[in-house]
Structures are given as structure tokens and as C-alpha cells.
Amino acid sequence: MVKIPINILVIDDESDFVDMLGMRLTDEGNNVRSALDGRSGLAILAEGWDADVVILDIKMPGMDGIEVLKEIKAKYPIVEVILLTGHGTIDTAVSGLKLGAFDYLLKPAQHEELLVKLEEARKRKAEHEERIRKAEAHALIRRTGGM
Amino acid sequence: MASDQEKRIGLLLVDDEAEFRTPLAKRLDRRGFDVRQAESGLQAIEALKSQQADVVLMDVNMPGMNGLQVLDEIKHRWPKTEVIMLTGQACVQDGVTGIKSGAFDYLTKPIEMEHLIGKLKQAVEMRKLLNDQEMEAEFRREMERRMSVAERLAALGTMASGVAHEINNPLAIINEATGFLKGRLDRSEDVPEGFRQSAELALGKIASSVERASRITHQLLDFARKNDWEIQEFDLVELAKEVVDLTSKTAKEENAEVEVLHRDRKLAIWSDPYQMRQVLINLVTNAIQAVGEKKGGNVWVDTEISGNDVVVTIKDTGPGIPRENLSRIFDPFFSTKPAGKGTGLGLSVTKGIVEKLGGTMTVDSRLGYGAVFRMVLPRKPLVSPVRPDLGPDL
Q: Nearest-CA neighbor of B301 among B239, B363, B357, B351?
């Protein structure tokens, strides 16, 4: 089976990490964009780039990852977010998951594990999109049927 | 009649003149002192060797070792024993020398009985006061030591987690860079075979070293957390449900059905919710993995009140634990998981946390019939925030 490319937005203030992870995920057939802080990350989503998954660091200067997560989930609820941080505590994990993050990984993460989670997240977003499309189609049929 | 207080005062009366010593001993005995007698300095020291006295009443002028020499010896061997010297009128200077050598006081013969008893009691009181002061000083030293251990542990914890976090970031970069190169190498066809082999070997070594370093940083974070105790009241059933949610993904992968029994019950407990969550996550994850070995099954988490304790059981339908492993399962680094799958610290750390929370942990299992891990926790544990006796000696 051919792998479906995933649109991944990496938000992390460690530029070397963003570069290396980005290069690796691109090599593996994905579309990757990156941002070094929360605001620039949100700007990429705001310009309409269709991200499937956001890989999000938590401890960043300016807006921290939890705030970015809240804003992503408020504005783009079907975009999945994987928290990936070197500053992990079980509390941030739990609060992140409660705020709607898809999963939580501690740096340095096993790449295979990250790939599995990215694929699961992509599938979940695709399912959401499918449901929305069906609901819209259904609404359209009802509207045209009623005319 | 003598009170119990006086009865307990042990007195050694040392004098070479029996006609003076014996009647005095009798009178003091009647006044409630526990009197022993010695007729020479040597005898006195032998008597003290076999049983110490609260106070020694001793004549200065004795043949052989004189009273001042015996005083030196007593103060050297038993510094807490108070000594009152007896001198003749003509030898006041001896009494002064005695005081300088550490005698509590000196009395001149002939002795006025009430005066003597007053002095003996004073000597005992003084000893008691000094003992109390010593105990208080010792207590203060111990508290200061504990405070300083606590401060150092807290500082070390903060530093450990800071270091761990700061190291995790560069480790992640090395990890990704290595993976990137490995990926490129795997996809390149025009690489000489010799170079490919050595490059793969080198990249493999980088990757395994990153893994090793990250195990250490994670242990440091665990260590930092372990010193952070926070005892509060919480609902254990609610926590169990949260843990089942947190482990639901692993459960799905291992085809395990995880259920909290009596889930509508409220069970308030005073403990450390963060440590308890760690304990439950470890035990539930282990149970799920055990069930996974049998391609699926059930895990039940149950809680019940038993007197002043709470009993938590985690039961699984996994393959069970062989009898020979049951006694070793909580040992550090004991693991039956394949190399690289577990460090073997899980159950020993888990048991350690439970014990620090004032509880106990046991396991029961029969090969082929699953396993039951059972924790008994006090509903209100007595946990001091610092346990220097359990921690590293800093």
C-alpha cells in the first residue's frame, strides 16, 4: 500500500530539532512546514494551509504549547495535535489530552512511535472530514429535496 | 515515706571508714535512695562498671587511690555521673580541687543529713537538666540535618529535572539527525557496501547511545518527582478511572478489556495523587501487557475499604507468573521482558512508592491463571515530606 502523505506542521523553538525532524519526515514522503513559535505556527494555519497534524512543543517563549493547543482546537477543531516535549510532566500530559491533544510524547521520541501516531492522527482527521462531508451532503439533499 | 522519684536515685557511697559509711547508707536507704557501698576507689570503679549510678558520694581521703584520683577516673569513663566529694574540715582545698575536676559539689564532715539530701537531689536535678538540654540540642541538630537534606534534595530535584529537560532537547536533535541519515543511507543505492556497513554500525551506535542517555534523563525526572510529595484528599475510584482512560490506547493495542469495578463508589483517601497515579499506571500497564501475551483478555481494577485501610487490587487474565519469579518480581532490575522492552525498574519503583505512602504491596499468581497485585494503603498515611533515612546520604 502506498503511504498517504501527511501534512505536518512542526512548532518548536529548537530550530535544529525542527530542521532535522522536518527533513526526516519530508524524506519519508510527508509535507512538512515548520514554525519556531506559536504565533508563526498559527499564522501558517490561518493562511489556509491544510495541516493534518501539528507536532507541538510545550515550553516555548511567548505563547506556550498549551495556549497554542487551545487556539488550534478552538479555530481548527479537526486538526490533530501531538504534543512533543522535553519538559514533560504527567500533569501537562493530562491537561494536554483533556484539551483535545491526540497524544503526548516525550523527547527524544522513538521515531517509529511518532510515525504510528502521525498515521493514526491523519486517519482520525480524515474520518472527521468524511463525516462532515456526508453531513453536508445530507443537508444539501434535504434542502434540494424540500425545494 | 520516700516517693517513687527518690527510690529511683541510684547512689554509690564510697568511704574507707565502715563506721561512717554503713550507718549513713542505712539512713539514706530509709530516705528512699538506692544505695550501694564501696570501701575503696578501686571497688567504686568496679561497682560502676557493673552498674552505673546517678550520683556518687565519695570521701577524698582514702588509702590507695584517693578520692580526687577516683573522681578523675569516673569523670573520664562516665562523664554523666555526678560526684559529690566529702572532705574533713581541714581539707577544704581538696573540695575546691574536686570542683575544678568536675565534682558537682563538696560537703564537709560531719554531714548535716537534710543538707546532704538536698545536695544529692540537686545533683540529680542538674543531671536531668543537662540530659534534657543535650536531648534538645540533639533534636535541634537532627532537625537541622533533616532540613538541610530536604533543601538539598529539593535543590537536587530541581537541578535534576532542569538538566534532564535541557538534555532531552539536544538528544532529540541527535536522534532525528541520526534517523535522517539512516533513512537517506537506506534509500541510496550507489553507496559502496563497505562504507554502508560501517556507516550503519556508527549510526546504530549513535542511536543506542541516545536511547541510553534518554533512559538516564527520564530516570532523573522520576527522581525529581519522587522527592515531591504532596499529600491531599482525593477520590481513588476517580483516579483509577482516569488511569484506565490514560492507558486505553495500550489496552486497545494489546486487546485487553480494562474495567474499574464498583466504579460508582466514592472512595476518599489521603495520599499523594501524583504518586498513586504513577503506581496505578505502572500496574495497569503491566497487567495489559501480560494480557497481551495471551493475545487478549481482561484486567480488573478494584478498590475496597478495610478498616483504616484501602485495598486496591489489579487482576489480570494474563499467563501468570512462575512460582520461582514471584519472590523476585519486586527486585530492582528483575525483568522478564525482552531486552530493551523494560528496564526492570517498574515494579521495584512502584513498590517503593507504595511503601513510602505507608502501604504494602503483594502479588499472587498461578501459572496459567493470571496475576493479582494487591496494595494495602492507609486512608491517612503518616508520611513526612522528608525521609532522609530512605534517601541518599547527601
A: B239
Question: In this complex, which of B179, B214, B221 lies closest to A111 when CB atoms are compared?
Answer: B179
Which residues from B are below 8 Å from A when comparing CB atoms? 165-166, 168-169, 171-177, 179-180, 183-184, 187, 210, 214, 218, 221, 225, 242, 246, 249, 274, 277-278
Q: What is the mean pLDDT of residues B124-133?
A: 86
Q: Give, as one character, the DSSP assignment of residue B192.
A: -
Mutate to test the interface with B, among A28, A107, A123 (most CBs of B within 10 A): A107
CA–CA separation, B87 vs B110, rounded Å?
Answer: 9
**Residues A93, A58: contact at Cβ < 8 Å?**
no
Q: What are the Cα distances from residue B384, in Å, to B147, B156, B223?
A: 12, 18, 17
pLDDT confidence of B137, banded at 50, 70, 90?
Answer: confident
**Grid coordinates standing for A116?**
504510528
- C-alpha dihedral (B314, B318, B319, B321), degrees to nearest 10: -20
Selection from B298, B273, B154, B303 nearest residue B224 by Cα: B154
Q: In this model, does residue B383 exceed pLDDT 50? A: no
Q: Which residues of A27-62 are buried (b: 16+ CB within 10 A; e: fewer)?
A: ebebebbbbbbbeebbebbeeeeebbbbbbbbbbee
Complex ipTM, two decimals?
0.77
Name which of A87-96, B5-14, B123-132 the model is least confident about: A87-96
A50 to chain B nearest CA, in Å? 24
Asked if omega into A108 is within 30° of 0 (cis), the reply is: yes
